[in-house]
Write a structure and sequence with these properties.
five-stranded mixed sheet, Muramoyl-pentapeptide Carboxypeptidase, domain 2, about 280 residues, 9 helices, two-stranded antiparallel sheet, alpha+beta
């Protein structure tokens, strides 16, 4: 058991280090936003007659979820949703576009911060992390800069998949927002059935032009720096981080997409508070 725990811890740490390296590539990757507007996914699904569900849960900070994608992704989204229906499944979109305030606060609300800190303490075999190390992990798990947060580009969705008859979640080895060694898409700690379901869903999403983010089994995006980098196309991302006015529908590119949403000082202060909440000593 100890050996198994050690293997899981080592795998988790290696995957997060790889994810951090990927984020650093994204920080440098060119983006030339094409200016496409954001389109409502519920409206698009209704118009196409495909069965898609949408999460009714608010974000951890109480903000509503905004289910939109760029106009150029809508046909692919509908295609993927229809292919899932053909298989007897239905997509449940868990999350879509996030504005700056939502992305900033998601990593700092107690429920999320405590979960991340607990996992990092486990990774460090019980030791409290230094602020810069936790910042590195937060940057990977909850994007801390608009440039690396494709939800802020309106080009990414988080999804679950359910059986159309039973409405039960299709087994992917864990629920949406699983935070463990099961989280990476190709985790070898999930069952063969769960791994097969992940591959089948990813194949269908790929038909619609979406690429799987390797370090979270629920995250898919297209047309952005993630896709171009993962597919090694050499082309700049078409979609970058934007501010979105849901009333007018207008988008405005974020001027400083590499600016930190939460400072190291803010994270350092929250570590102390979180350690107290968790009953741990720093």
């Amino acid at each position: 058991m100890d050996n198994d725990e050690s293997q899981r811890r080592a795998y988790w740490a290696a995957q997060l280090d790889d994810a951090h390296d990927f984020m650093m590539k994204i920080m440098e990757y060119p983006v030339e936003d094409c200016g496409e507007r954001l389109v409502s996914l519920p409206d698009a699904a209704d118009a196409a007659g495909v069965e898609v569900f949408f999460s009714a849960r608010p974000h951890a900070n109480g903000s509503p979820r905004v289910f939109v994608l760029r106009k150029g992704q809508i046909d692919g989204f509908i295609h993927a949703a229809g292919r899932l229906n053909d298989r007897g499944w239905a997509m449940r979109v868990e999350d879509g576009y996030r504005n700056r305030m939502v992305q900033k606060s998601l990593g700092m609300v107690p429920a999320v911060f405590d979960a991340v800190l607990s996992k990092v303490v486990w990774e460090l075999d019980g030791r409290a992390p230094q602020p810069d190390f936790l910042f590195k992990r937060l940057l990977t798990l909850v994007a801390q800069m608009p440039k690396i947060g494709t939800h802020m580009s309106g080009s990414a969705i988080d999804i679950s998949v359910v059986d159309r008859d039973s409405r039960e979640d299709v087994d992917r080895g864990g629920p949406y927002l699983e935070l463990s060694e099961l989280t990476p898409m190709d985790s070898h700690f999930v069952s063969p059935q769960a791994a097969g379901n992940r591959r089948a869903i990813t194949d269908i999403m790929s038909e619609g032009g979406f690429v799987a983010y390797p370090y979270e089994f629920w995250h898919y995006s297209g047309g952005d720096a993630y896709e171009q980098c993962l597919r090694e196309t050499g082309r700049p991302g078409r979609y970058g981080a934007v501010d979105f006015d849901p009333v007018s529908g207008e988008i405005t590119p974020i001027e400083n997409p590499c600016e930190h949403l939460n400072s190291l000082e803010e994270i350092q202060a929250e570590i102390q508070v979180s350690m107290q909440r968790l009953g741990r000593k720093g």
